[in-house]
Amino acid sequence: MAEISQTIATPAAPPRRRFRWGRVFDHAVLILGSAFMLMPVLLALTTMSFSDVQIERQGIIFGLSDQMGANFTKAMTEKSGFTEAITGTRMLMNSFILGIGFALGKIVISMMAAYAIVYFRLRFATFAFWIIFTTLLLPLEVRILPSYEVVQGMGLTNTYTGLIVPLIASATGTFFFRQFFRSVPEEMIEAARIDGAGPVKFFIDILVPLSRTMIAAIFIIMFVFGWNQYLWPTLITTEEGLFTLVRGIKQIIQVFEGATIPEYGKGLALAVIAMIPPVAIVVFFQNWFVKGLVESEK
Amino acid sequence: MKRAGFSNPWLPVALLLPQLSIIAIFFYWPAGWAIHSSFFLQDPFGFGSSFVGLDNYTDLFGAVEYRKVAGFTVIFTLLVTFLSLAIALLLAVKADKVIRGARSYRTLLMWVYAIAPPVAGFLGIMFFQQGNGPITQFFGFFGWEFMLGVNYTDTATAMVIVSVWKQIPVNFIFFLSGLQSIPKSVQEAAVIDNNSGTSRFWDITFPLLAPTAFFLLIINITYALFDTFGVVDTLVKGEPGNNPLTLVYKVYVDGFRGNDLGGSSAQSVILMVLVLILTVFQFRLIERRIHYT
Which residues of A touch B16 (CB under 8 A)? Predict the structure, then answer.
């Protein structure tokens, strides 16, 4: 294909030289763009290897020193916060609970709902679909105060349930699985029925295995989404023992304000720890992630 | 619905129950409550409330401060949307063109997707810090004395830059996948007809990307309105003071700091209406106008 276009383009095109310059320009733009995306985090990493005094004096530093390990250890093990009740390790654990709990809960609940909507003759299927679909329209942020009051009224503040379950109340996953189930050939279910498989068996033995890639893709997106939640955890968790890393960021900054020499190294280390798991998952499972993201929005 | 469905009467109900009950408790109830309490004036000490009709709304639209926040939100949204879409489109077009290193570029340009907005805001603080932040020093080089958290425009600038940085990856991913789905034959036909790369892009490629671009436009507006909360909150360091705020941030400040349930709910309802308009707009335009693929 590429050959055809080149042979056609050549007669009118100037000599190859200019063509090459264009390519250099393309790469220059891409390198510049990549640097713009990469630099802030890279510099945060290098700065983290310095001591607080040096960071206080010089700000962001490009270079390497020997404090990286010390800052990491401090971030992970030293107790911090107003009540001195939480370490980085604990926050990391809470972040994982939120990320994984949210992703799994969302997948299980939305797969069940999507299965019911797509595969059953149900009189109120359309109605149920619209009830669920409407939730796509209003993000949690716009109904934040009443949501908080509801959760508080149920006594769920400062619990993992109160942290995770209200976040699941939207239809993104259901919508995604509905689209996917509809693309599964109808012969599948006919064949399953001839073989005498009931709805439960069909779901567990045929549909779930078929959806493996989709589940993986949606898991990545939901995990990152849950991990990165900020406003909701800020409201729901006031006990420091339940803070996630992303929630803890605010504490880090507020501690900065009062101190003579803020603990920059520790703060940066916590920020880096907060980035590593979601970034790693997105980079390593890039293809699934991109597929999930693009498909889920169709 | 599939034609060959199961006809078990109770199983689907059981399957739908968890989702429906979560939505009822954590979505419809709060949303309804927001609408309800927007018509009431709450006693700040918790002694009941009184019906005030549309007073909360008229108070809001009459308040200079609210209009200022709304005005800032509009400008902020336009800037973030335009800049992140434009930069991402440029990068996606280039990434679609090159062959060598294509995968590495893709990775480098999309990984920031995974960074949480407040973490991005925290990095912003380090970079825009007064005194020794590298970007502050860079601006100082041109005689711009940048003061994050003190000067209104400066804080707003930092918010826009950080928010754009955070949003480029999503736009990039969608633009790139949009570009890759344009059939090669179309592009080759375009090469025969028109040799200028620029006009080929605007005449052929861009219209074909229009559905993606339009979808992204809505996504970006929603992002700038709601998801930038973490960026705003970290960059103003939790001290609204004289700093630029977005509408969502004001809902939070009035509701949780000011204990103004009615006013905050009225703001929530205004935002709900805004999102509904956006969504309706999205569906109508997608159905009516843009139908290439």
Answer: 112-113, 116-117, 128
Average pLDDT, chain A: 83
Look up the CATH number of the domain holding residue B230: 1.10.3720.10
Concatenated DSSP letters of A216-272: HHHHHHHHHHHHT--HHHHHH--SGGG--HHHHHHHHHHHHHH-SS--HHHHHHHHH
Instruction: Assess whether pLDDT exceeds 80 at residue B49.
Output: no
CB contact under 8 A, A286 and B107: yes
Interface test with A, best of B10, B11, B16, B28 (most A CBs within 10 A): B16
Domain ranges of chain A: 2-77, 88-296
User: Which pLDDT score is estimated for B160?
Assistant: 95
Total count of domains within chain B? 1
B22, part of any domain: no
**Is B221 part of any domain?**
yes
Give the integer Cα–Cα distance in Å for B191 and B197. Answer: 8
pLDDT in tens, B50-96: 787 788 888 888 888 889 999 999 999 999 999 999 999 999 999 98
Express each pLDDT in B230-257 by its tens digit.
Answer: 999 888 876 777 788 899 898 888 888 7
Distance (Å) of CA A271 to CA B33, B163, B164, B187: 36, 17, 19, 44
Tell if the CB–CB gap between A253 and B226 is shorter than 8 Å. Answer: no
Q: For residue A165, list chain B residues with Cβ-Cβ distance below 8 A.
A: 22, 26
Residues 6 or more apart from A269 whose CB is under 8 A from it?
A: A48, A71, A72, A74, A75, A76, A88
Residue B94: list chain A partners with CB under 8 A.
Answer: 26-27, 29-30, 33
Of the pLDDT bands very low, low, confident and very high (cuts 50, 70, 90), residue B44 is: low
For residue A169, give the nearest of B26, B108, B256 by CB distance: B26
Does residue B5 belong to any structural domain of this protein?
A: no
pLDDT of residue A298: 54
A293·B11 Cβ contact <8 A: no
* Mean pLDDT, all residues of chain B: 84
Which chain B residues are Cβ-neighbours of A59 within 8 angstroms?
A: 126, 129, 131-134, 137
Q: Tell me whether residue B8 is in a domain.
A: no
What is A88-296's CATH number, 1.50.10.10, 3.30.70.3450, 1.10.150.240, 1.10.3720.10? 1.10.3720.10
Per-residue pLDDT, averaged over A95-121, amounts to 92
Across the interface, whether the CB atoms of A189 and B4 are under 8 A apart is answered yes
Question: Are the beta carbons of A36 and B165 separated by less than 8 Å?
Answer: yes
Give the pLDDT confidence of B169-200 residue by residue, as tens digits.
Answer: 999 999 999 998 888 888 788 878 776 777 88
Say if residues A169 and A137 touch (Cβ distance below 8 Å).
Answer: no
Domain encompassing residue B150:
55-288
Dihedral-angle region of residue B81 (phi above 0 means left; psi in -120 to 50 means alpha; beta otherwise):
alpha
Mutation site, B29, B115, B175, interface A, largest A CB count within 10 A: B115
- Candidates A114, A97, A70, A121; CA nearest to A243 is A97
- Which pair of tokens denotes residue A31? 């390198």
